[in-house]
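Hypothesis: this fold can be encoded by more than one sequence.
Test: take the structure tokens below, design a sequence, compare later.
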């Protein structure tokens, strides 16, 4: 499956995607752990307490978001490589045409 199709399928799915990562914020005396969702937007850090009953849903949601962002990054990398190749080819062709024009004139 192409990257564009994979990204479109992830968006079309409509499943929730949550930015960030789940971190243990505290361990209770009973041994139970408390979790926070942490993420950063620009330079601001956000932290949200996650109730135990919602933990699994947040795990799936953050994993889905991570997979989507990885897919987007691969797509950007692929397009960057294509752009570099195209720009270099156009520059090489332009140099070749300039050389040919100088030969014809000279």
């Amino acid at each position: 499956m192409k990257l564009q199709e994979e990204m479109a399928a992830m968006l079309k799915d409509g499943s929730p995607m949550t930015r960030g990562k789940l971190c243990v914020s505290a361990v209770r005396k009973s041994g139970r752990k408390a979790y926070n969702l942490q993420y950063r937007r620009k330079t601001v850090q956000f932290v949200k307490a996650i109730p135990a009953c919602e933990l699994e849903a947040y795990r799936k949601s953050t994993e889905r978001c991570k997979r989507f962002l990885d897919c987007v990054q691969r797509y950007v990398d692929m397009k960057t490589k294509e752009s570099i190749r195209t720009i270099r080819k156009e520059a090489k062709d332009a140099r070749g045409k300039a050389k040919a024009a100088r030969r014809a004139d000279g």
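The longest strand covers residues 33-41. Residues 3-105 form one domain.
Hypothesis status: open.
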